[in-house]
Specification:
The protein contains 4 helices and 29 strands. It is mainly β. Strands 1, 21, 22, 23, 24 and 28 form a 6-stranded mixed sheet that branches. A 5-stranded antiparallel sheet has the order 17-18-19-20-29, with no helix packed on it. It has a 4-stranded antiparallel sheet with strand order 2-27-26-25, with no helix packed on it. A hairpin with a 4-residue loop joins strand 10 and strand 11. It starts with a helix and ends in a 5-residue tail after the last strand. 46% of the residues are buried.
């Protein structure tokens, strides 16, 4: 079970049932930039539903990895279960709080973030063999990463820093940047409203931060230099007075007031897609809505709030961005009560977008 407020808040984001969404962009008659290209049934690893709050992760060769606390489930492109990696425990090769994963340079090794052990456990994907464990100065990582040579760049969560650089040759990990001031003054809300995510656009870092509208640009040392905002178009967005609306002591039965940060994947030659989600109450998230937003490479236009046309009947991981696609793992209940897991892949087509002007902003205060 979750072991911290942060873990519980993020788990709340994955409860409940996703509301059915239109195949067209919210508020317009234009075709959606999301096109379903594949739906694949995923073999269950056992007779019960996988995990209470699994994390969906991209793997090499269009494979996927599902981390659900004490293990990592590796599926091929067709949905067949290739292997179960790791087992529950505290020893070498054992996991307690497996979350997001990082594919290391060369695509043969996968690092699993274990929030409870504050460590990255590295496994050989093809064999499932444990290779080594690296202690980390953080408890969580973002849902996307960037590889430059032997260095993996990714956001960090449940940490005062914004992002990390991991030299996989020496296993040295450096953390950079400082979270915005709202993260310290409203820590519960900051965690409740999603994940930090970081991508690399040329030599500049781009970040998606909880409680911060739009995206934020970072210098190499993690200093926030500027931002980019765009008006909501179907989602709640992130109002400037979000913290004030919640009050000094958040009420777990009160309705949520904004959207949560889920994912960021930079595609330098095309666009930067972002995922956000929202639900109604943290104690009863009975309806979750996911939205895709694209920012063009010139940082002047945005295609805002395309709803993900997905439904699910049971516990689910968050959608992820991978190679110009949105990937979503839904759970469907058959008439006999059996759980059927289906992986949906949606291609992102910027040409089908309704674009709106994006506005340069100042960086959030630190």
């Amino acid at each position: 079970m979750p072991h911290s407020i942060a873990y519980r808040c993020l788990a709340a984001l994955a409860l409940g049932t996703v509301a059915a969404c239109s195949d067209e962009s919210s508020g317009s008659g234009n075709p959606s930039p999301l096109t379903l290209i594949d739906s694949t049934s995923i073999a269950e690893a056992d007779s019960t539903m996988v995990g209470a709050f699994p994390y969906l992760n991209p793997g090499p060769d269009s494979s996927i990895l599902v981390a659900d606390g004490g293990r990592l489930l590796h599926y091929d492109r067709s949905g067949s279960l290739l292997r179960i990696i790791g087992r529950k425990g505290m020893g070498p090769g054992e996991l307690q709080g497996a979350m997001a994963t990082l594919t290391l340079p060369g695509d043969s090794l996968e690092a699993v973030m274990d929030a409870r052990q504050r460590a990255l456990s590295i496994f050989h994907l093809a064999s499932g063999q444990f290779r080594r464990r690296v202690s980390s100065p953080f408890q969580g990582i973002g849902l996307n990463s960037t590889i430059r040579g032997d260095t993996v760049i990714f956001a960090v969560n449940m940490s005062p820093a914004l992002y990390a650089k991991w030299d996989t040759r020496s296993d040295s990990i450096g953390v950079f940047g400082t979270r915005p001031a709202v993260a310290s003054s409203h820590m519960y809300l900051y965690v409740l409203y999603g994940f930090q995510n970081v991508g690399l656009l040329g030599d500049q870092l781009v970040a998606q931060l909880p409680m911060s509208p739009g995206i934020v640009f970072l210098a190499a040392d993690g200093t926030m230099t500027s931002g980019l905002a765009y008006p909501p178009n179907g989602s709640r967005g992130v109002p400037n007075d979000l913290a004030t609306r919640h009050g000094p002591v958040p009420d777990p039965t009160a309705s949520l007031q904004g959207s949560s940060a889920i994912g960021l994947r930079v595609r330098p030659s095309e666009h930067a897609p972002l995922l956000t989600g929202e639900y109604d109450r943290p104690d009863k998230p009975e309806s979750i809505r996911f939205f895709l937003t694209l920012v063009d490479v010139d940082r002047k236009l945005a295609c805002v709030d395309t709803p993900l046309p997905v439904t699910t009947d049971a516990m689910l991981p968050l959608p992820i961005l991978e190679k110009g696609q949105v990937v979503f793992l839904a759970r469907h209940l058959d008439p006999d009560g059996a759980v059927r897991s289906v992986l949906y892949r949606y291609r992102i087509d910027p040409g089908a977008c309704s674009w709106t002007a994006a506005t340069a902003t100042s960086a959030p205060p630190v």
